[in-house]
Amino acid sequence: AQRVTQPEKLLSVFKGAPVELKCNYSYSGSPELFWYVQYSRQRLQLLLRHISRESIKGFTADLNKGETSFHLKKPFAQEEDSAMYYCALDAGGTSYGKLTFGQGTILTVHP
Amino acid sequence: DTAVSQTPKYLVTQMGNDKSIKCEQNLGHDTMYWYKQDSKKFLKIMFSYNNKELIINETVPNRFSPKSPDKAHLNLHINSLELGDSAVYFCASSQDYARVAGEPAYEQYFGPGTRLTVT
């Protein structure tokens, strides 16, 4: 069965500092990985997905199949980045669209 | 125009009661999901439906019964509520569910959540 691990429950940085939210997964097939974000009092929304290789709001994430990781990075954190971040995996095939989420990381960016 | 909506937003009830949470999507999607976010913020899928048919049924107590009257609605009925059912329940929808090999997965759009508190 697939599993997603986000080792940091809480992460605090100062504005302008680089930030990296870690995500590791275990799955033997070809998963698709996502980062979802939940800002205060807002719904969960897709931030980015590995297949699109985009930079969204200054965030990037690269799928490293050797290390089975999909860490989220931003070179200069902003206060508006403060939110809960979830890494998620879609295993495809008979998972029927099921997303397996990590435990989430609460990012706080201090002024 | 809200894409995925849930009612109610907050639900406070006593143990033993039966309650329902409703979800509606106006995106024209075929697949809908229920997720549970527990007190530790851990998010886990419970059910999914595609065109009113049950696709995913995780190991959820059978006190939880989803119902999909049409593909735009997926309701969650909970019988004999227990303290441990207190959580935030999220509905989501996607265009479809079946990811073809080599093709991207369908994006899931989430509702605002329903915070259920059982006292």
The average pLDDT value of chain A, as a whole number, equals 92
Strand element count of chain A: 11
Number of helices of chain B: 0
N- and C-termini, Cα separation of chain B: 34 Å
Largest interface (CB < 8 Å):
A-B, 24 and 30 residues
- What count of helical segments of chain A does DSSP give? 0
Our Rg estimate of chain B from Cα atoms comes to: 14 Å
What structural category characterises the helix and strand content of chain B?
mainly beta
Low-confidence spans of chain A: none
SS class of chain A: mainly beta
The helix content of chain B, as a percent range, equals under 10%
- Give the SSE order of chain B as H and E letters: EEEEEEEEEEE
Tally of extended strands of chain B?
11
Main β sheet profile of chain B = 7 strands, mixed
The major sheet of chain A is characterized as:
6 strands, mixed
The amount of helix of chain A comes to under 10%
Order of helices and strands of chain A: EEEEEEEEEEE
Q: How does this structure look, described?
A:
The complex is a heterodimer of chains A (111) and B (119). Chain A is mainly beta and 111 residues long. Chain A is built from no helices and 11 strands. Chain A is globular, with a radius of gyration of 14 Å. The mean pLDDT of chain A is 92. In chain B, strand 7 (64-70) and strand 8 (73-78) form a beta hairpin. Chain B is an all-beta fold. In chain B, the strands form 2 sheets. In chain B, strands 2, 4, 5, 6, 9, 10 and 11 form a 7-stranded mixed sheet that branches. Chain B is 0% helix and 53% strand. At the A-B interface, strand 6, strand 9 and strand 10 of A face strand 5 and strand 9 of B.
